[in-house]
Structures are given as structure tokens and as C-alpha cells.
Amino acid sequence: MTKHRLVLTTASSKEEAHKIARALVERHLAACVNLVQPVESIYRWQGKIEEAQEWLLLIKTTGAAFERVRDAIKELHSYDLPECICLAIDGGSSAYLKWLEDSVSE
């Protein structure tokens, strides 16, 4: 199994997304975080259908750092239950993946 991961989360505002992204990179938990301009989210929360504009964060990290990324998202996030989905990266540019590994503290 590959050791590279893409973690997805959303934030309620550009400011919150930026705060989370910057903290993850500063703490060497992520090599890079892309902030995607507002996405429209429709979801079920506490028995009701909700709609919101959110910022999507694409977090590039390693499997070894994932638990620390998850914990940091929970710590920094304003949501009671922040999204945190981890996907394996099965391929990519070998130079990019090496840079990703080198940028994240194990």
C-alpha cells in the first residue's frame, strides 16, 4: 500500500480554511494544502437537510502523519464534527511524491 495520502475536509469560511491549512503546513503535517473556493454542500445534520457554502481543503500528507492531521483538524475546526476523509494516493510523479514525503515529519 502506498504511504501517500490525500485528506479532505471543509471549513465554514476562507479565514478558517486558511488557518487550518497554514497550521498543517507549519507543523510539518502536510506538504501542501489546496483551498478550493466555496463549494455548495447539501447534507443531513441532526435529522434535518442543511445547505451551506464551504471551503474545501485538499491536504497532501503521508499515512504515518494522518492521525496527527486528523487530530489537528479536530483541534483547529469550528465544527462539532468536521469532515476528515483520507484517500490513498496510488500513483503520481515520483519527484512530487518524494517532495511530499520530505516535507512531512514522520
Question: What's a quick, concise take on this entry?
Answer:
The chain has 106 residues and is α+β, with helices and mostly antiparallel strands. The protein has three helices and four strands, in the order βαββαβα. The chain has one domain: Alpha-Beta Plaits (2-Layer Sandwich).
Entry keywords:
alpha+beta; Alpha-Beta Plaits; four-stranded antiparallel beta sheet; 32% helix
Fold topology:
Blueprint: E1 4-11, H1 14-26, E2 32-45, E3 48-62, H2 66-76, E4 85-88, H3 94-103
Antiparallel strand pairs: 1-3, 1-4, 2-3
Helix pairs in contact: 1-2
Question: Could you characterize what this model shows?
Answer:
Helix 1 runs antiparallel to helix 2 (66-76). The two termini are 17 Å apart. The protein is built from three helices and four strands. It is elongated, with a radius of gyration of 14 Å. The chain has a four-stranded antiparallel beta sheet. It has a single domain, classed as Alpha-Beta Plaits (2-Layer Sandwich), CATH 3.30.70. With 106 residues, the protein is an alpha+beta fold. It has helices at residues 14-26, 66-76, 94-103; strands at residues 4-11, 32-45, 48-62, 85-88. The mean pLDDT is 96.
Number of strands: 4
How many helices? The count is 3
List low-pLDDT spans: none
Biggest sheet character: 4 strands, antiparallel
* Domains, number: 1
Helix coverage percent: 25-40%
Structural class of the secondary structure composition? alpha+beta
The topology string of helices and strands comes to: EHEEHEH
CATH class: Alpha Beta
Shape: elongated
Looking at the structure, the CATH topology is Alpha-Beta Plaits
N- and C-termini, Cα separation:
17 Å
Strand order of the largest sheet: 2-3-1-4
